[in-house]
Design a protein that fits this description.
This protein is mostly beta strands. It contains three helices and 17 strands. β7 and β8 form a beta hairpin. The protein is globular and about 45 Å long.
Length: 243
């Protein structure tokens, strides 16, 4: 007599679709994390309920855990001043904490054209700053940074292929339909041209924005990646109910 044992496997569908992948492009190592709308809950974070800057991914994680929420992945959400306040426009859940800056200036932020990463529950946008200002666009979340890396399928005109300035870099690009945002971090020092070319040629992204440089980090416990370092300013994260 034969006895057949049937094992019932229950597949639990996660409440998020975000993913992170490692790859190499032109002999440099990168990690790309993708968020999709409307599947993923993506937000910007800066201050806790007391007005204190989170500063660290772990501090944000602890704050969200108390609310029954997990971080799927998080990374730098834009440039900031010494006090960790945003350099340019910063909007969190429709509340503007810092205004749009339309002029040029020192540093990477002022390497025009720069731009704004704006999103809500329907779409992601990356727009050149002055174009964004003219459109009077209302964002649920927005962070201004610079320079733009890829502009309508072309690399920023001031980037040099053999540029000597090399750092770990992070940025964000969006797909043409506006439904996916790809957050890219280099795992070694690269110049601006190499970083932008990775968006354009490897990821097939026509519009991408620089987020930050040497202090760029990635916190993705679901994908076995947890970076540590100095306190940072704005944080962009995909979150999901704990379970």
């Amino acid at each position: 007599m034969k006895v057949f044992i049937f094992i019932l496997v229950l597949w639990i569908t996660p409440v998020w679709s975000a993913e992170c992948q490692d790859f190499k492009f032109q002999e440099a190592a990168f990690t790309a994390c993708t968020a999709k709308i409307p599947e993923d809950d993506i937000r910007l974070f800066l201050y806790d309920k007391t007005g204190k800057n989170f500063g660290q991914f772990q501090e944000l994680d602890n704050f969200l855990t108390e609310q029954g929420i997990n971080i799927i992945f998080a990374t730098n959400g834009g440039m900031y001043h010494a006090d960790r306040s945003p350099v340019g426009m910063y909007v969190e859940n429709f509340k503007e904490f810092s205004p749009l800056i339309t002029g040029d200036g020192p540093g990477n932020f002022g390497l025009l054209p720069n731009g704004v990463f704006c999103f809500n529950k329907r779409e992601f946008l990356i727009l050149e700053t002055k174009k964004f200002a003219r459109g009077k666009i209302k964002c649920q979340y927005a962070t201004q940074s610079g320079p733009l890396l890829v502009i309508d399928g072309k690399i920023h005109p001031q980037f040099l292929k053999d540029g000597a300035s090399k750092f770990v870099r992070s940025g964000v690009g969006i797909t043409r339909d506006g439904l996916k945002a790809i957050f890219l971090i280099s795992n070694q020092a690269v110049n601006f041209h190499h970083f932008a070319r990775t968006f354009l040629d490897h990821l097939k992204i026509d519009n991408a924005l620089y987020l930050d440089g040497n202090i760029s980090r990635l916190y993705a416990p679901k994908f076995n990646r947890v970076d540590f370092g100095f306190d940072i300013g704005p944080i962009v994260a995909v979150v999901a109910p704990a379970g």
